[in-house]
């Protein structure tokens, strides 16, 4: 019999320390007005020095467990999307597996930068639909503050820390997942990078080793030029139009950029969910955080159609069109 996958619970966690736009005025040559008008960001959350991605992932899962009284004892896979893992190995997912004492669970981290969470959801859907797994935790979590250069005004004002988690389960009917699209424009990878072992790709123009370096304008141009096409490709597969979608949930990178994308795609501002005003760009965590905020505000209802669109470093992208089943 065919297996399907269904989202049954969601949770989140953000660190308690708040960094406002005014805090940046003390650190670099910027202003609240510049940041608000150019990005839409007002605040972001920052982890303590000894607080890492695994810590906030774990707290997001505990939040999910508590809110939905979710039984996690039979989780058989953990997928943690992040570009800021505590270690190269062990993975963040292994840490969660150990902390929750999930004896029968696999554990993997994936890195698709800001597209990581939607990639994670699509992988979870594939694993459950093919019968390999039955209950999967998908987490998007980042501590970008640890790889942010706080002397570079063009990047430091953007990034924040946070985590979101979904529980995806086997179901015989009423699946969440309708269709998806994924891809990558790897030729444009130099627009957004953080070096580690190899520096080959950057020849002699390497900047700021170990910190995020971004050609903001390059990414902006790419996103406004390509994301509307990616949205159409996804909806075409399901024979739907943007007006059929209840909630559009793009990666929260920049409000102005999202407004341009929405305008090109005929998506109303009122149907767009963002988390950047409160939390900044938290890469793989922005999409589950946007959904969490909207759930708290009781915006999303069971049966609503949601289009999630992740894009960023790579430049990689991944969409998923889902029917909300919580
Ligand atoms: N405060 C004041 N002035 C600033 C600041 C700042 N914080 N940062 C840059 N400026 C200045 C620049 O120096 C420049 O000055 P100049 O004209 O004298 O040279 C001017 O503002 C314009 O700079 P731009 O970089 O062209 O500004 P832009 O309007 O493009 O905004 C931004 C920059 C916010 C970074 C924007 O390009 C952006 O958000 N890009 C997309 C980011 C994104 O989507 N990233 C992908 C996901 S992230 C991930 O995957 C981890």
Descriptors:
326 residues; alpha/beta; five-stranded mixed sheet; four-stranded mixed sheet; 10 helices; 32% helix; globular; binds acetyl coenzyme *A
User: Largest beta sheet: what is the strand line-up?
Assistant: 1-7-6-4-5
Rg from Cα: 19 Å
What is the string of SSEs from the N terminus onward? EEHHEHEHEHEHEEEEHEHHHEE
The fraction of residues in strands falls at 15-25%
> From the helix content, strand content and strand pairing, which structural class follows?
alpha/beta
Bound molecules: acetyl coenzyme *A
**Number of separate helices:** 10
Ends distance? 24 Å
Largest sheet: number of strands, sense, barrel closure: 5 strands, mixed
The counted number of beta strands is: 13
């Amino acid at each position: 019999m065919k297996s399907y996958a269904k989202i049954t619970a969601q949770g989140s966690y953000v660190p308690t320390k708040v960094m406002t736009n005014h805090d940046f005025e003390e650190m670099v040559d910027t202003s609240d007005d510049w940041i608000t008008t150019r990005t839409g960001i007002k605040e972001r959350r920052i982890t303590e020095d000894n607080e890492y991605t695994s810590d906030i992932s774990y707290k997001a899962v505990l939040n999910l467990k508590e809110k939905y009284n979710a039984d996690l004892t039979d989780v058989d896979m953990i997928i943690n999307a992040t570009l800021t893992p505590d270690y190269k190995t062990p993975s963040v997912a292994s840490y969660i597996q150990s902390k929750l004492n999930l004896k029968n669970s696999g554990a993997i981290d994936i890195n698709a930068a800001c597209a990581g969470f939607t990639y994670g959801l699509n992988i979870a859907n594939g694993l459950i639909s093919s019968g390999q797994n039955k209950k999967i935790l998908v987490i998007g979590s980042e501590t970008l503050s640890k790889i942010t250069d706080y002397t570079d005004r063009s990047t430091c004002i953007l990034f924040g820390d946070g985590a979101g988690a979904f529980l995806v389960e086997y179901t015989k009917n009423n699946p969440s997942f309708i269709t998806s699209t994924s891809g990558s424009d790897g030729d444009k990878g130099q627009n957004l990078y953080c070096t580690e072992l190899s520096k080959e790709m950057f020849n002699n123009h390497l900047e700021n080793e170990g910190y995020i370096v971004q050609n903001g304008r390059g990414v902006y141009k790419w996103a406004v030029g390509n994301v509307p096409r990616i949205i159409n490709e996804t909806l075409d597969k399901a024979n739907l139009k943007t007006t059929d979608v209840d909630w559009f949930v793009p990666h929260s990178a920049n409000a102005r950029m999202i407004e341009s994308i929405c305008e090109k795609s005929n998506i109303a501002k009122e149907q767009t969910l963002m988390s950047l005003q409160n939390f900044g760009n938290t890469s793989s965590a922005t999409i589950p955080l946007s959904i969490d905020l909207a759930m708290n505000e009781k915006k999303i209802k069971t049966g609503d159609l949601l289009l999630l669109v992740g894009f960023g470093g790579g430049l990689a992208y991944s969409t998923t069109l889902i029917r909300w089943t919580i």
